[in-house]
Amino acid sequence: MLRGFYTAASGMVANQRMQETLSNNMSNAYTPGYKADQGTMRAFPELLIEQMGAKEIPTTTGGINLPVRQEVGSLNTGVYVQETVPSFSQGDIRETGITTDMALIQGDVPDEKGMVFFNVQNEEGELSHTRNGNFTVDNEGFLTTNQGNYVLDDAGNPINTDGLEFDVSGEGVLTIGDQQIPLGLSYAANAEDMVKEGNDVYQPGEEAAALVNARANPEVAFDVRQSVLEGSNVDPARTMTEMMNTYRSFEMNQRVLKAYDQNMQKAVTEIGRLR
After folding, report:
1. In the 3-class helix/strand/coil scheme, how is 30-54 assigned residue by residue?
2. pTM reported for the whole predicted model
């Protein structure tokens, strides 16, 4: 009986966490460069149930009893959300007409899960990476993200536009007056090893390989476009359907938990009553 409580409760907790992940995806459906999180569920270790008994075998001396085990089946003890992994598929490209907006168009790469990122500073001033090219120019002339963090060049320095108009080539080189400044672009051989740290920026995970300069490998193909943005890869219709299914699953576990609670109440108040 108590095992049923824990199994139903674990299902509700897993459904709640999945709902939070899906809700976050839905709220970022129109965030440029956002990559949808995908949650994976895993069952707790299964228990193998066996029926134990004995079988009598007649002998000349009267008979002997041999232990017999008959397999009944497996019993799941619960479920949990093992991890959430971003999906790094390319988002739709849309024109904005704003010259500070940029989009990275993914080309052929040597690794199946490889992806190119813009280099930016995070709030702690450390090197981070993003696919969100919704940039702007601050009052000092520096190219920044919408959160006010610097966009970095190929040498890891903030890019100062001096308040001038600039053009961006397909190779990601900014032409500002008579200067040419290459954007800092990094390549991750396995984008799924990247960890979100908020505000649409990523850091390599603990076991991830270090990111390399995207221009250093001729097999890495990409195209930087100006005045366009890469949209979110969230599918609102599919996400809404998954949210409804997760909600129904939560309700089912809730009803199971309520049924166990009623049975326990009856066992305590009626079956266990002294007469």
Report:
1. CCCCCCCEEEEEEECCCEEEEEEEE
2. 0.78
What CA–CA distance (Å, rounded) separates 37 from 168?
A: 31
pLDDT attached to residue 105? 94
Q: DSSP letters of 57-81?
A: E--TTS-EEEEEEEEEEEE---EEE
Residues 6+ apart with CB under 8 A from 189: 110, 111, 113, 114, 209
Q: Do residues 128 and 122 make contact, with C-beta atoms less than 8 angstroms apart?
A: yes
pLDDT of the residue at 46 = 65
Q: What is the pLDDT of residue 60?
A: 64
CA–CA separation, 159 vs 142, rounded Å? 6
- Whether 86 contacts 203, CB under 8 Å: no
Number of H helices, E strands in the chain: 2, 19
Mean pLDDT, consecutive 10-residue segments, the chain of 275 residues? Answer: 76 92 94 91 69 70 71 70 86 94 93 94 91 94 93 95 92 93 95 88 87 92 96 94 94 89 79 60
Q: Which residue has the tokens 């005045």?
A: 227
Question: Residues with Cβ < 8 Å from 133, sequence gap 6 or more?
Answer: 32, 33, 101, 102, 103, 104, 118, 229, 230
Question: What is the DSSP code (8-state) at residue 157?
Answer: -
Residue 24, C-beta contacts closer than 8 angstroms, at least 6 positions apart: 37
Task: Report the amino acid identity of residue 143.
Answer: L
| Pick from 177, 30, 181, 169: nearest CA to 102 | 169
> DSSP 3-state assignment of 183?
strand
Structure-token match 């908020």, residue found? 198
Burial class for 210, CB neighbours closer than 10 Å (0-12, 13-18, 19+): exposed
pLDDT at 62: 65
